[in-house]
Q: What sequence folds into this?
């Protein structure tokens, strides 16, 4: 880390073309944006820049076009929706760094907004190609990174551009994410409770490893709890276990000692299906052929008790297959407990964030991270390339 994170406060934007890496990667259905969340999260920085008199040039990826132009992944419909939310015109270029982009950017007046075409139409974006980064940099006089969801990627628009184009600073969304997640790692107020769940223990080992010395309580649910339970000698039946992680997990169990809280009961199903026959069983005795798809009611009670004591809390990963009603109670119960907690609460992880939102608890949580992968890597303690690039610039 070469220095503090530079922010919009340090940018004199008036009359300048400000090239903003935003995260406009929203779901589209038949040319219509079906979820505004990321667009709304981008508005504060766009508004601040407009008020400062900047000519705002937005750039983003959308989906995975893999270096090819795809008409269904053009940013024009996203620009149209952004314009509605912003209450101002947003011009959409039909190319990234070509004639149309230059024509539109040259035509901007102070306070105007334009969007370049999908960055990933060019293979140079994910390859962090120097020439592509230089061509992007020509479209701005200053750079702002506000795409927290992309800072863990060493792509041209994330690390290449700020190495060429300065000043390079963090936008408001990125700044908030970094400040909030840093609060979890740097001297969190105690008790500090971490709740981890989700699909794969191997995805979350880095986070567990980095949080373990910091937390007072580590609650484990989701599919990953079965690797922990099995490592502790439990019969987990046909539940999902990552056999190759059993040794690592055994080491984590020893290190965690009595700070580790595993489920005491499990909702087990006869098949991996939404309407499968299911019942609550002891966590150490899942019948052969049955698989655990949620934490049980006694576990929800126990976890709720621990969560209520937290002054600082982070949650990543659902407690069960919350997409299916029969296995959503654990995730709902933990969401309710987190919402009721008086401490500083943070949710990271795409699926956990979606679950908390769809269950209606979002406005009672301190912070919901907009970056799934990025928030995980941040909590692993990794120096993220996009953030490092700003600190160097
Ligand atoms: P996040 O995006 O919040 O980090 P993950 O991507 O790691 O979370 O995991 C989310 C997925 O984990 C969900 O689709 C959910 O259905 C699945 N899952 C949770 N518990 C189980 C389980 N016991 N068995 C199988 N899948 C599970
Ligand atoms: Mg996920």
A:
């Amino acid at each position: 880390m070469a220095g503090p994170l530079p922010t919009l406060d340090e940018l004199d934007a008036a009359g300048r073309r400000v090239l903003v890496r935003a995260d406009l990667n929203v779901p589209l259905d038949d040319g219509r944006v079906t979820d505004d969340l990321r667009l709304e999260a981008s508005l504060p920085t766009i508004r601040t820049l407009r008020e400062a008199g900047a000519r705002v040039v937005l750039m983003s990826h959308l989906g995975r076009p893999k270096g090819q132009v795809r008409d269904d992944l053009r940013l024009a419909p996203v620009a149209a929706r952004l314009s509605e939310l912003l209450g101002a015109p947003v011009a959409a270029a039909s190319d990234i760094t070509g004639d149309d982009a230059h024509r539109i950017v040259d035509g901007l007046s102070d306070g105007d907004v334009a969007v370049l075409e999908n960055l990933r139409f060019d293979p140079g974006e994910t390859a962090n190609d120097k020439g592509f980064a230089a061509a992007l940099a020509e479209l701005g006089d200053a750079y702002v990174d506000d795409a927290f969801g992309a800072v863990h990627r060493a792509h041209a628009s994330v690390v290449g551009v700020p190495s060429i184009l300065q000043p390079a600073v963090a936008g408001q969304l990125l700044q908030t994410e970094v400040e909030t997640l840093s609060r979890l790692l740097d001297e969190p107020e105690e008790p500090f409770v971490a709740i981890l769940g989700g699909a794969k223990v191997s995805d979350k080992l880095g986070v567990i490893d980095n949080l373990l010395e910091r937390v007072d309580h580590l609650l484990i649910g989701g599919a990953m709890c079965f690797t922990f339970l099995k490592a502790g000698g439990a019969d987990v039946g046909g539940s999902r276990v990552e056999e190759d992680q059993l040794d690592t997990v055994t080491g984590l169990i020893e290190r965690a000692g009595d700070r580790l809280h595993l489920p005491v009961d499990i909702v087990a199903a006869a098949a991996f299906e939404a309407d499968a026959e299911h019942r609550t069983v002891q966590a150490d005795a899942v019948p052969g052929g049955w698989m655990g798809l949620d934490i049980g009611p006694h576990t929800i009670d126990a976890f709720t008790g621990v969560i209520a004591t937290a002054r600082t809390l982070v949650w990543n990963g659902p407690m069960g297959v919350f997409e299916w009603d029969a296995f959503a109670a654990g995730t709902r119960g933990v969401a309710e407990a987190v919402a009721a907690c008086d401490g500083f609460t943070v949710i990271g992880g795409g699926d956990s964030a979606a679950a908390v939102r769809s269950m209606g608890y979002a406005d009672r949580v301190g912070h919901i991270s907009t970056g799934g992968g990025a928030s995980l890597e941040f909590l692993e303690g990794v120096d993220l390339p996009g953030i490092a690039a700003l600190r160097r610039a």
